[in-house]
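Researcher: I need the complex structure. Ligand is adenosine-5'-triphosphate. Inputs:
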Amino acid sequence: MMSFLNEYGSDLLLKTWEQLYISLIALSLGIIVAVPLGITLNRFPRTAKVMISISSMLQTVPSLALLALMIPIFGIGKFPAIVALFIYSLLPILRNTCIGMEGVDPSLIDSAKGMGMTRWQVMLQVSLPQALPVIMAGIRLSAVYLIAWATLASYIGAGGLGDFIFNGLNLYQPELIIGGTIPVSLLALLTDFLLGRLEQKLTPVNLRDGGEDE
Amino acid sequence: MAQAKPIVEFDHVGKTYPNGKQALVDFNLKVMPGDFVCFIGTSGGGKTTAMRMINRMLDPTSGEVKFDGKKVADLDPIELRRHIGYVIQNIGLIPHMTLEDNICLVPKLLKWPKEKREARARELIKLVEMPEDFLSRYPHEISGGQQQRIGVIRALAADQKVMLMDEPFGALDPLTREKLQDLVHYLQHDLGKTIIMVTHDMDEALRLATRIVIFDDGRIIQSASPAEILKHPANDFVEELIGPDRMNEAKVMLATASSIMLNNPVSTTGDVTLGEALVKMNNHHIDSLIVVDDEHRLIGELDIGQVMAHRNLKLKVKNYMLASPRSVFEDDLLSSIYQTIINRHLKYMPVVDHDHRVVGIITRSSLATLLCEHVWGKADPEDNADEGK
Ligand SMILES: Nc1ncnc2c1ncn2[C@@H]1O[C@H](COP(=O)(O)OP(=O)(O)OP(=O)(O)O)[C@@H](O)[C@H]1O
Ligand SMILES: [Mg+2]
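Model: Output:
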């Protein structure tokens, strides 16, 4: 154990950082695209259905295949990996945004509109805050997936903890496999925990249970 | 009453939904400032549809809706809605905003300065008798009745003159509902708001409305004051909607004085002596006499107390009688007479024609008989039998 850390310690930190970095960039892009898209789609329920089925289809493409498909288009390295992960992040976020927006009490929206709020005001000040916990749950799920899947990005030369694992597999060195896997799991768990806290913070007061948060 | 213009007007309005459903057919209605209009009728009759056209939550497929003389179709819907209060059954308070932010929603949309908004919120929460520190609470931290009170004051926070309410109290328990009815009555009666309210509760409509509009299948069946509707229901449908109990009660309460009075009340002229008057009282087992002039016009009242006070039985009644008691006209309605007799603890009231000639009398005990008959009349005979055992 100690010897493993002595030998690979700095490398481990670097790879962990790469893993995190790839996933978080992909996740941020996913949020930037999918949340506004989901909110906008709320007005066009039919288009929303189509978009969700398209992204569901993308989701079913095996991750390795998707990564491999990136090579002819974007070559190898971090960039194609981020693109692939970004595509993966879309579905959970988009779907949850749509579900969250759809789930807002229609009478709440009706009365907000009836008092003279514009569509945008209703969306941003009424619907979005109420939908936030569901959207956050989608983001959290995406984040955990991306961190796990980013391991495969090593396959197209994006670096990350996958380097350890694939090396371990190739050289038949179990300690490398374990040394790569444990940080991935820890990273995923930590992200899940932190985003969970954030989700609680962003949950509107009426939907909190217990609510002795502050 | 001079040159009053309708604040809301429906002019041959029709609404056909995209699925072909004709929700309103040639709908005409004028709502005057200060009116309290209740929409009532069968489910699916078009009440909500009609109401939502006023603030352009819906647009008519034919005809015109006018607000304050202007066609709403020409007005910006957002701007229009900010000037019309809107209250729905599900309350619609925004759950993640404090009561203060909820109350001040429209003032904020109208860009009122912060101090003015805060002052308004404090003023309004006082109006509904809730403590000021509630302003920082969230809707889920107060009761349903309190929430709807906030819902009501939110709808007038920007001093909206007209308020639309769609079954606002439908989900509340009877006691809370009564309190809120008092509140909206106050808003209309004392603050001069114009209120248009959809309700399923006939008692609520009868209690609050200045005008009841009865809907069936997209048409107005009757549009009249509560008294008029009780007196002359337009057809069987309206009668059914009012229900036999209320019709029965209405028959009693809307009875005229002449139809319920006792005829030939014992009276005397002023020229007789106290002694003669006393004999008359004794003969009829009563303790007071109506005093009339030669043409039988009411001029005063003689009470046994007056006779006892003077003892001198030779004195003339006209010099020692009391002033005329409160009288009612023969066409006054029992609903108002009843209130007066009960509230003022009167023993009786003479009934006079419009020349003030005494034609009859209504006594406190005859009122009791009448009400008793009415209650008996509507009670289930089996209940009576049970009580008899
Ligand atoms: N958006 C819509 N699309 C199609 N039909 C509708 C729509 N809204 C209402 N209707 C129909 O129009 C008719 C009138 O509806 P409305 O809601 O105005 O009735 P209401 O008098 O308010 O009924 P309730 O007392 O049940 O609230 C009903 O038959 C209803 O089914
Ligand atoms: Mg309705």
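Model: Summary of the prediction. Chain B touches chain A through 27 residues (CB under 8 Å).
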